[in-house]
Predict the structure.
Amino acid sequence: MSCIDLTAPFKAWFDQPEITRREVALKSERTRYTGVVYNLNTTTMMGSYIDFPGHIKETDNGMTGANADLSDFAGIPCTVIHFDRAAVPGGISAADLEAACGGMPDTPAVIINALGATPSFDIEQRSVYLELDAVEWLKKTPCKLLISDVYESKALEGVFLKLFEGGISTICEPANLHKLPSGQVKLTVLFPKIPVTQLPCALIAEF
């Protein structure tokens, strides 16, 4: 069994986190030591992060990090679809997805590696994107969690809106997708139980 960490470093497109450290002196008659505590002032769009449908107000289904069933994110079957479109701007269609996948996925999670080994930070933002018919194609599958290195176009056509309307949560800014084999892997997504609809997460794939 091999494992690949798909979690991006703790950085953002904007507004780097403010991390402050403080020390707490702890002592008793038997011991003495110094605890270290960190305060974080950051956006939830930091590193790899999960968006529940409530990330858009109009599609809020009540799911947050606090009430999501973690068993739905632990060791779940996930279909991996690969492209190498970093140098080829434009949309990825339903036909493109089906051809690359070899059919319709039958798993609760789908990974789309559209950019090959190129990090999304290294291309023009939204120059490669999912077309709306690709979103409709995904909504016809059992997928309830999409992990992708591309989503919306510059035209803001409503990719996230349509995904969330279908009850599909998304994970943005994953890493190392190109290292995964095509076909199926087991995916685990970990996040703190915080009552918000968008929060940083960690991803591990097993195959």
Summary: The two ends are 6 Å apart (CA to CA). DSSP finds three helices and 13 strands in the chain. The first helix runs from residue 94 to 101. The helical segments are 94-101, 132-139, 159-165.
